[in-house]
Amino acid sequence: MDESKIHGRFGLDQDPGDTYNSMWMELSGVPFSQGWIKAGDINTRYLHTGSSDKPALIFLHGFIGHAEAFIRNLAAHGEYFNTYAIDMMGTGYSDKPDFPYHAPVIARQVSDFMDSAGLKTASVLGTSYGSRIATRFAINYPDRLDKLTLSSVSGIKFNSEAGARILSDHSAIDNPSWEQCKKEVTHLFRTGVFDDLIACRQAIVAQTEMIKVKPHLYVPHKPETGDLSRASEEEYRTIQAPTLVLQGVQDETYDTSGAEEIADAIPNARLVLMEGCGHAPYFQKPEEWNKIHLDFLLDR
Prior knowledge:
Layout: E1 32-39, E2 42-49, E3 56-60, H1 74-78, E4 82-86, H2 103-117, E5 122-127, H3 129-140, E6 145-151, H4 160-169, H5 178-189, H6 195-205, H7 208-218, H8 233-236, E7 243-248, H9 256-265, E8 269-274, H10 281-284, H11 286-297
Parallel strand pairs: 3-4, 3-5, 5-6, 6-7, 7-8
Antiparallel strand pairs: 1-2, 2-4
Helix pairs in contact: 2-3, 5-6
């Protein structure tokens, strides 16, 4: 085997004196679990920290993401919450049914997941496309929502230019090479990218089902179907749950105007802009982000 093809994949380009860092070190010493719950008809995979005697919290990843996106947040939140990061349908290691993955459909998956997990209510955080799922959940299931957090949001109206750019930036399903997966993970998280996080993404997008369901995954970013996964301004104004909108100032995917627009529309919302952060502030500056988020959830 050409060793140049595996350098970086297993840390072989590090100095022999360096310590290899795994993403799972973020959960070192922390009780956590992986499992699957049948959410309606969807076998839904999750990562879990915390315990059932604490209030529930659900993390929703972004476009073609997976639960490991929150690897730097699960330990801190598990101290106070019964915390689940789930793989939404069509992504990660959850089921990949043969129909379009519009936001209302995935919001129903979240509600069904809660039913199966025995969660009457939960606080819900969504990032990027996950923020649209969280928004739809807040609108369709207001009695099941404690607090709402929207991170890295796109704004209320569909932006065809941003949609095209996002689809272009996510081509690893067609080319699940190490180089392409590293490019996408680095573009999203910017700093502190673990080799095994790249390997995790590569294994996920290389699943044979991903090619089949790619059209279903792409619907929220297509001009002809994008509005089906968006809430109207009037719907945003119906959200009564305490809401935090978090945005990285240096987000190259969505600028801060969309976050400001959404925070203005939700009656009980506040906006926090994080300097020095791009599209994934929860990963890029986890200590600062965790504190901001926990202060909001715990009313500190």
